[in-house]
Amino acid sequence: MPATLLVVAEIADGHLTKLSAEIASLAARLASADGGHALGHVLDPAPDTAAAELAAYLPRVVSVASDAVSGQVWAPHAAAEVHRLIDEGATHVLLGVTNDGRDVAGLLCGALGWGILANASGASWDGEAIVVEATVLSGKAITRSTVDAPNAIVTVRPGAAEATELASPGSVETRAAAAAPSVPAAVVIDRVAEAGAEVSLEEAKVVIVGGRGVGGPDGFNLVDELAGLLGGVTGASRAAVDAGWIPYARQIGQTGKVVRPSLYLSLGVSGAMQHRAGMQGSENIIAVNRDPDAPIAEIADLFVLGDLFEVGPALATELRSRRDG
């Protein structure tokens, strides 16, 4: 029986996230290969803009406006909406490898008893079974996994597919919110904007990263300056975050954010396995380090052997001269 793939979309600042657009294109491709269907779901207090954006990638989008998610945790409400669409025939659920995506996937897995395929970097069919590829051991190996069942939940990493719009936009169906979720939704009593969290690392085309080598919080002044000159976003290794030099929102790696920018420039980052798991898919990797044996040299397209406090300011001076000239 042909599959019906449901994409659970996420919204940032009123717009569809880049990752959700990528997942939508992956679902559309899988549906086409299987002769099945693909649809998307958007849940937000004001979902109209994001729903229209999602319809550029999928033939059908279900848009649900819910005031409840303004003051309650989003995941239980999203899981309730997904459950309704599963009752209507959805056979597979695709979500992003994000905090919200993982939360919804966990709720669905527990409630439905479906198998979950996590951290997909690609997907295809083997007969009627969906097969997911995932990189492990910091990209040194690729696994292929499936579930022996007609249903599955898949969490997808950034860059698993290129976001490609349909020839013509799909339809948007608006609905009232479902009944209260089966799992109580926690009430949000306060929201705190963490410094540096306002810019999405996952969406950035240019990421400038500081590691233990920057020496302290003041060392990130140079990282921030280069990020500004290059129109990029500041990131950090776990060592810098653990030292308290920069907020966790900036951490890249296995326990942080996964990025795939066009340009990744690191200053004083050794490139341990944990960090490489979060950035090795970058298109162009440039690393500055005074240790010629730093592990990041193994994957860098350009490795600059030198002191970051000499190389970094020189680069900033050159960038300013080009900008001002």
Description:
It is a single chain. The protein contains nine helices and 17 strands. With about 325 residues, it is of the alpha/beta class. It folds into two domains: about 5-175, 3-Layer(aba) Sandwich (Rossmann fold), CATH 3.40.50.620; about 205-325, TPP-binding domain (Rossmann fold, 3-Layer(aba) Sandwich). A seven-stranded parallel β-sheet has the order 7-11-6-1-4-5-12, with helices on both faces. Strands 14-13-15-16-17 form a five-stranded parallel β-sheet. Helix 4 (about 75-85) crosses helix 5. The longest helix has 17 residues, at about 20-35.
By DSSP, the count of extended strands is: 17
Helix/strand order, N-terminal first: EEEHEHEHHEHEEEEEEEHEHEHEEH
The fraction of residues assigned to DSSP E strands is: 25-35%
CATH topology of the largest domain: Rossmann fold
Helix percentage: 25-40%
Radius of gyration from CA coordinates: 21 Å
What structural class do you assign from the helix and strand content? alpha/beta
CATH first level of the largest domain: Alpha Beta
Provide a count of the helices.
Answer: 9
Distance between the termini: 63 Å
Shape: globular
The CATH architecture of the largest domain can be named as: 3-Layer(aba) Sandwich
Low-confidence stretches: none
Largest sheet report: 7 strands, parallel
Q: Number of domains in the coordinates? A: 2
Strand order of the largest sheet: 7-11-6-1-4-5-12
Name the CATH homologous superfamily of the largest domain: HUPs
